[in-house]
Amino acid sequence: MVPKILEGEKVNTVPNVSLGQFIFDSATKFGEKACQIDSHTNTPESFLSVKQRSVRVAMEMQKRGITSQDTLVFCSKVTLDTPIPIIASFFLGAKIANLDPTLSTRQTSHLLSIISPKMIFVSEAALNLIEESLESANLKTAIVVYDNSTKYPTFSEFVKRKANEENFKPVDITNLDETIVMFFSSGTTGLPKAICHSHSSFLHLVYNFYETNGKGCFEVILSFTTFYWLSGMLYLTCTFVEGGHRVICRDVEDEQLFQLIEKYKVTFIFVAPILTYRFTNCPNFNKYDTSSLRSLVISGTPISTIQLDKVRSVFKHTNVILAYGQTEIGYVSMYNTDTDSKFIQNKYISCGKVVKGVTLKVVDVETNEILGPNKKGEIYAKTKSLMKGYYNSDNKNIFEEDGFLRTGDIGYYDEDECLYYVERIKEMFKYLSWHIVPSAIELVLMEHPAIKEVVVFGFPRSEEEGEVPTACVVLKDGPTASGKEIEDFVASRVSDKEKLRGGVYFMNELPRTPSGKLKRKEIRDYIIKELKKN
DSSP E strands: which ranges in 294-393? Predict the structure, then answer.
């Protein structure tokens, strides 16, 4: 009998030190090994160089009044310079948060107002965004520009050689439960909040993930994302666990990705589902040797079985794995490439088994009963990598009395303890008292040859009916389809209650967060507003 509460294996060793001390010691240990490589210039940087430059920046920060009580923010695409002041902040025990340069002024202003940073490091390209956002938030924050500037101090000034730099030591942090890094929630269903991780929780998060994947997996990581995302910070820190390195790439075309895998013998890649199309749309993928790639992990949003099969056909010798997690927790489930090879092949649509260091249960959303195999309910998770809470927010009722966090996600596990993600609870809606799962209908719609992107939501109909399934689609270039054709296509493939009774609406593109998550509520509100006009 499968237990009703699933337990991941115990994590072997998590360093009982501050995040800054951990990185400082690891950089010393790995010395002249490559820590990061800029693929655009083919420029490598060693662990010792990263440590030295971070020490110099930390000493300059101290000179300008930065202490462990302060918060710093960073906004830039990823370069060799981007992580240096982040690591410097860790050396000082100062809290950090990252912004993505593609965010709007409204979003950025809101995020800055939550955490009120003392200093911001920003790329020249994102400087206008930060200036306007600070003005909107009415904040007086010191700005440092990574590139050239005659108006503000520059990164090059901070990284100059310092007297007695060889004697620098990270600030001693006695309370490892103090917040050290913050991430912003996606804001797909409301205003984003700042998720707080402590020295302890973040290092547990890193080691939960690292030990689940196994030694050697992170030898060469192909890095796409900015440090705004948990994945960016996670993979940066993983290089300090094993002495591997990140290969940084920005704005590359489809075929260039295969060139990078071959050239640098990449062993690990993480992508959101929307980025997998870069791989599957490349007609010349067979020209390149991708045999070094041990794991391709896909996570963040649902992916259709059709697209997953395409990815697997491109990377025939790679473990293509779905993973499930949240920024508040880290990774909750994924397959272990050393022990789960059978399931990776036979149950590849599952998002894997509970990772090391995590406890999980599935709970009935109405009765709170703990459910057994193959019964859908809300996923609860408990782990030492759990966030502390939300910054400057009311954190009451976030955690259950037994220490579990309610994820807000619907899922289930099977008799082999393989987990399956179904849907966000807030994205589900009721039609005639039936729970409708938008992603299930979206996967059907994505099988239509003319559809490029789609979102399904509930459209308010009446008190009796509730909300009816409604679709908003983006068509591919070339093929065409009418709303009626698409409605009929879906009707022949779903249950009666899942038919698109709310109709089909067309857009040129669907608004997404920078990580590729659909802004479902924004789309729904837009359609309702437009219909009211008519």
Answer: 295-298, 319-322, 324-326, 330-334, 353-354, 358-363, 377-383, 389-390
